[in-house]
């Protein structure tokens, strides 16, 4: 069986592929043999198994026309689906098999298959993308930043005993606070609660910290503040909140010096060895993480070049995959959706929005990489497909995918891998020492 024609059709809502397939006369006859051999295995009153005349077999399924319809089903199920899979066509919903002529033994059989497929889209620009990347080797600024993190891990606090001290950003305030919302309802856990609040550290919203700066021990403050984060979210609820804060005392954070004593705590010989080991650790981490970071960044750039919006029907299709993966992940963790939502304080609408965003992102990646693959004239080789099964169970895995008629999915993954490799290899990279920038 072979595909003799393929046409991509566009309407206002979706793109469809129409394939014309032709089974040879020999393939028709072979399918007929298998169809009638299967019927021969059934019980037929008055006949021994395997000795039932052809005319009786046809009558047992409703006559000659119905029998030929059964032969056509054998051709479609056993031959057409593998041929379609090998061609690389992926129908994203159940396709329609259209038979216009009656099948006849000894003659070729022609039919069409049609159904929705992923949209072909265009990019506004097919040139290399520009990205920023961290240095491939650890810089002094990065080592310093990681050592500061180590110091912070081993930090301590000391009291500020100066009675005239006024709160400043960087101070840690020991306080008792009560926070209510606009209706006067207590925010959970914040009713006369004793807290150590790091001013400017994110313990409380910046608008809260601003009201505390300048206060002294013994002061009682009462004020409104906005708990909305810069990204529009809130850890305390929506709208203005009201706080009553009793300032008890102040502390300052004390970081240990980068000396031999700290080095001994982390298993190093001395301060010099601690710095050297930190540099080696950063380099190991970079070798592991930078390739993925580069891939993520080139992909984020290429999807920005999509010309137009990804059609809704394809986003909806990908959403089903995202939702199914999410449910499978919950099952692996031994929980269900309701338990997960309760444990993570997630509302249904918020979860749906997250799934929709992820679906749109994945759909955008699919369309952008396919557009790049086609425009650049990239070609898949047998080696490209082999790489998709490059593991110790590769041959077994390949056979399972083939038996499941999913080699078209493998081809799609290989195309996207090749397009991604082109982006990575040709990217215009600007190296930025983010640690040095942050330290300025």
How would you explain this protein's 3D organization?
The chain is of the alpha+beta class. It is built from 14 helices and 11 strands. It has helices spanning 25-40, 54-60, 64-87, 140-153, 206-212, 260-265, 271-303, 312-332, 337-343, 348-375, 382-387, 394-403, 407-426, 434-439, and strands spanning 2-10, 15-23, 96-98, 109-116, 130-133, 156-159, 172-180, 193-198, 220-226, 240-254, 428-431. The strands form 3 sheets. Strands 6, 7, 8, 9 and 10 form a 5-stranded antiparallel beta sheet that branches. β1 and β2 form a beta hairpin. The model has no long low-confidence stretch (mean pLDDT 90).
Strand-residue proportion: 15-25%
Please tally the helical runs, counting DSSP H or I stretches of 4 or more residues.
14
Radius of gyration: 33 Å
How many DSSP E strands? Answer: 11
């Amino acid at each position: 069986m072979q595909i003799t024609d393929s046409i991509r059709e566009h309407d206002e809502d979706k793109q469809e592929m129409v394939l014309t397939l032709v089974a040879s006369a020999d393939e028709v006859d072979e399918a007929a043999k298998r169809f009638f051999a299967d019927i021969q295995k059934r019980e037929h009153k008055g006949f021994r198994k395997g000795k039932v005349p052809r005319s009786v077999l046809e009558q047992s399924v409703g006559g000659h026309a119905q029998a030929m319809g059964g032969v056509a089903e054998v051709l479609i199920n056993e031959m057409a689906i593998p041929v379609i899979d090998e061609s690389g066509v992926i129908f994203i919903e159940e396709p329609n098999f259209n038979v216009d002529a009656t099948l006849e033994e000894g003659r070729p059989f022609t039919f069409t298959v049609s159904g929705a497929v992923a949209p072909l889209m265009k990019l506004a620009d097919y040139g290399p993308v520009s990205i920023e990347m961290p240095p491939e080797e650890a810089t002094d600024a990065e080592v310093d930043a990681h050592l500061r993190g180590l110091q912070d891990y081993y930090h301590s606090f000391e009291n500020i005993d100066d009675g005239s001290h006024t709160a400043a950003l960087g101070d840690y305030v020991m306080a008792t606070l009560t926070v209510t919302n606009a209706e006067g309802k207590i925010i959970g856990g914040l009713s006369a609660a004793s807290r150590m609040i790091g001013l400017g550290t994110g313990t409380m919203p910046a608008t809260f910290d601003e009201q505390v700066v300048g206060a002294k021990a013994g002061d009682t403050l009462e004020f409104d503040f906005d708990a909305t984060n810069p990204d529009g979210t809130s850890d305390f609820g929506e709208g203005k909140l009201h706080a009553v804060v009793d300032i008890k005392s102040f502390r300052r954070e004390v970081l240990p010096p980068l000396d031999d004593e700290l080095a001994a705590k982390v298993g190093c010989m001395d301060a010099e060895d601690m710095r050297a080991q930190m540099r080696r650790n950063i380099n190991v981490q970079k070798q592991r993480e930078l390739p993925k970071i580069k891939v993520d960044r080139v992909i984020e750039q290429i999807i920005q070049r999509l010309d137009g919006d990804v059609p809704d029907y394809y986003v909806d299709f990908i959403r089903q995959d995202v939702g199914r993966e999410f449910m499978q992940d919950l099952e692996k963790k031994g929980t269900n959706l309701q338990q997960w939502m309760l444990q993570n304080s997630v509302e249904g609408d918020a979860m749906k929005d997250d799934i929709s965003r992820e679906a749109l992102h994945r759909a955008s990646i699919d369309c952008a990489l396919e557009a790049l693959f086609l425009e650049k004239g990239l070609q898949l080789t047998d080696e490209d497909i082999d790489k998709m099964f490059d593991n110790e169970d590769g041959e077994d895995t390949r056979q399972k995918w083939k038996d499941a008629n999913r080699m078209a999915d493998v081809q799609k993954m290989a195309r996207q891998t090749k397009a991604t490799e082109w982006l990575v290899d040709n990217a215009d990279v600007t190296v930025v020492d983010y640690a040095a920038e942050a330290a300025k």
